[in-house]
Amino acid sequence: MTIIITGTSTGIGFTLAEYFGKKGHQVYGLSRKNVESDFFKTIPTDITDNSQVQNAISEILKSEKSIDILINNAGMGMVGAVEDSTQEEIMKLFNLNLVGSVQMMSAVLPKMRKQKSGKIINISSIGSEMGLPFRGFYSASKSALDKVTEAIRYEVSPWKIDVCTLHLGDIKTKIAENRVKTKVSEPYKKTFEKVYSLMNAHVDDGTEPSEVAEYIDQLLAKKSWKAHYYFGKFGQKIGVPLKWILPQNFYENLMKKYNKMD
To answer: Which InterPro entries does the entry link to (predicted)?
Structure first.
């Protein structure tokens, strides 16, 4: 199979690219940095630049007869109070987490329609299901990607193209080094520092990226997909159904305790 994965310079993306490359698939990693690997080919690409995206797909199709799988993994985090976030920071986040992923889908869909097959996995977050304290815009950007995924599933189904979102919990990566961190104003500093410290501790104690690769491998073996899949530790996954069934105020109080805000 021909697999395209974005955000392959580090973390989950690099692990996925190596994992599927070792299994004998033709894997192309799209990231801004060139990465040396014996198991996949890097095409340096800024996915927020649509001309670079189109050029990368054209280059792949010079060598490959099909595009079987796209994994939209590239993304970034953002922390800080909603009030303190600037327009520039918000736009930078949405441009990568939402627009970049949409541009990637739009670039591969003509080929997938022609071959009447294809699978697209949009990497989302369990945090997209709720507004997380001091991560409001990150939650919003991933939630937007979720809804776009739900819409496009209807639109591409006549060509037997399947699309889903994979909501991840905390994964042990260097995401903290690449987050957008807003300037935190005085009223929020004390609470933010407590939440931020806990946030980083959860990442350090997160699931290994190799486990994500194994889960996606199992997912690709399924004949048909649901719109949403959730992967992570039980304590994080349980937050999703609780959000659906509990009264909002009660749920918010649980979230405050989980984030040590009380």
So the answer is: NAD(P)-bd_dom_sf (IPR036291), SDR_fam (IPR002347), SDR_oxidoreductase (IPR051911)
Hey, which residues does 124 pair with through a beta bridge? Answer: 167
Among candidate residues 101, 124, 139, 143, the one labeled active-site is 124
Closest CA to 196 of 98, 77, 73, 96: 77
pLDDT digits 0-9 by tens, 111-148: 999 999 999 999 999 999 999 999 999 999 999 999 99
Phi, psi angle pair for 120, to nearest 5°: -130, 125
Tokens coding 50? 């649509």
For residue 252, pLDDT beyond 90 = yes
- Domain extents for the chain? 2-258
Q: What is the pLDDT of residues 143-176, one digit of tens each?
A: 999 999 999 999 999 999 999 999 999 887 766 6
Superfamily of domain 2-258: NAD(P)-binding Rossmann-like Domain (3.40.50.720)
- Contact present, 149 and 164 (Cβ < 8 Å): yes
63 in active site? no
Looking at residue 258, what is its pLDDT? 86
Mean pLDDT across the chain, nearest whole number?
94
Environment class of 88 (CB within 10 Å of its CB; exposed 0-12, middle 13-18, buried 19+): exposed
Q: Which residue in the block uniquely carries the two structure tokens 């014996």?
A: 38
Active-site residue (options: 9, 31, 128, 141): 9
Active site residue 260: no
Q: Which of 31, 101, 119, 142 is catalytic?
A: 142
The candidate with the shortest Cα–Cα distance to 212, out of 15, 24, 23, is 15
Q: In the chain, what is the straight-line distance between the N-terminal and C-terminal CA atoms, in Å?
A: 50
Phi, psi of 165 (to 5 degrees): -110, 140
Residue 9 annotated among the catalytic residues of the structure:
yes
Q: Which of 138, 188, 196, 230 is catalytic?
A: 138
Q: Is 73 within 8 Å of 8 (Cβ atoms)?
A: yes
